[in-house]
């Protein structure tokens, strides 16, 4: 019985079916290795513009089969070139946005702060001061938000500053 089992196993392992299975498995491993080398090359191209680095990464990914891509993952740059380009564009957009928030004198384009009444470079009048508290008033304000005094030169008949606090207490 044991002899027949071993003779059956011997017959299977020496048959054409077993040889076909072995060759198919070997072809699969070679194909898997080639695909992993191609992935390493494409990923290295996406992360570096230096051809020498791409070649070195491809060699590193190819030479120790199946362990090369794992080694490459340890040493590859953390960001792709597309990610770096996108980050640079976002940074520029933020800088442009922040640059547009900087106030400038309408006469000489000198940078001024929001609390300036006149331009320090050309002495152009930027804002009027409140006659009650002296704080700068924007040109479109009718009432000083700091002391509730009506802006100079305005007559607001029938309009009073209303108290929006509940029962005399300030709401938050």
TrEMBL record:
<dbReference type="Pfam" id="PF12773">
    <property type="entry name" value="DZR"/>
</dbReference>
<feature type="domain" description="DZANK-type">
    <location>
        <begin position="105"/>
        <end position="147"/>
    </location>
</feature>
<dbReference type="InterPro" id="IPR025874">
    <property type="entry name" value="DZR"/>
</dbReference>
<protein>
    <submittedName>
        <fullName>Unannotated protein</fullName>
    </submittedName>
</protein>
<keyword id="KW-0472">Membrane</keyword>
<feature type="transmembrane region" description="Helical">
    <location>
        <begin position="56"/>
        <end position="75"/>
    </location>
</feature>
<feature type="transmembrane region" description="Helical">
    <location>
        <begin position="12"/>
        <end position="35"/>
    </location>
</feature>
<keyword id="KW-0812">Transmembrane</keyword>
<keyword id="KW-1133">Transmembrane helix</keyword>
């Amino acid at each position: 019985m044991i002899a027949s089992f071993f003779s059956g196993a011997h017959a299977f392992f020496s048959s054409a079916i077993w040889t076909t299975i072995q060759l198919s498995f070997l072809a699969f491993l070679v194909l898997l290795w080639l695909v992993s080398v191609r992935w390493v090359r494409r990923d290295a191209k996406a992360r570096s513009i230096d051809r020498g680095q791409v070649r070195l990464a491809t060699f590193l990914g190819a030479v120790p089969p199946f362990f090369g891509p794992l080694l490459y993952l340890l040493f590859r740059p953390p960001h792709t070139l597309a990610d770096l380009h996108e980050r640079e564009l976002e940074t520029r957009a933020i800088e442009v946005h922040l640059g547009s928030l900087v106030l400038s004198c309408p006469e000489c384009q000198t940078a001024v702060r929001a609390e300036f009444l006149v331009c320090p470079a050309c002495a152009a009048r930027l804002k009027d001061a409140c006659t009650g508290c002296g704080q700068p008033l924007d040109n479109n304000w009718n009432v000083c938000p700091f002391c509730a005094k009506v802006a100079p030169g305005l007559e607001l008949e029938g309009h009073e500053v209303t108290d929006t606090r509940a029962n005399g207490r300030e709401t938050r």
